[in-house]
Design a protein that fits this description.
By secondary structure, this protein is of the alpha+beta class. It contains six helices and four strands; from the N terminus they run H-H-E-H-E-H-E-H-E-H. The longest helix is centred in the middle third of the chain and has 18 residues.
Length: about 160
Amino acid sequence: MELQEAITTRRSIRAFKDKAIPRADLEAIVDAARLAPTGSNRQPWDFVVITDKAVIKKIKIAAEWMGEAAAIIAIVLDDFSPAWKDDGCAAATTMLLKIVDLGYGSCWVQGNIEPFEDEFKALLGVPAAKHMPIMLPIGVPAESPVKEKKPLEEIIHWEKFSE
């Protein structure tokens, strides 16, 4: 798949078919994140790949539909870098594009994780000092949502902002 096609066809997928994802594909998704840009190349991340259905069932308290995912990737960040939040977002975006490239779907889950972050870190063995703000449930899409995006003309400004 060409990059532009991945960018244009990526949608938030919250319904998945009951199909496993090969380990090689999950590794390719994390490898894409590993190559994402980071402030001063600090790479303040680790990634926990969850395929155990019993663990996924425990994580679905953040959002019921997450229980349908074949896998979930948790982004674990260390705040030693001043840009750690931005770096995590870059990693998530890169993974989302790779996920689409491989024919899977996902949805960036962030706010729903926060109330359960300590519980999830304990469940996954993540040290308490680290942050785990983003999870990406992944699977074969069981839906094809169509969401309208604002047209370019509405959001682009040349030389200075104008309303």
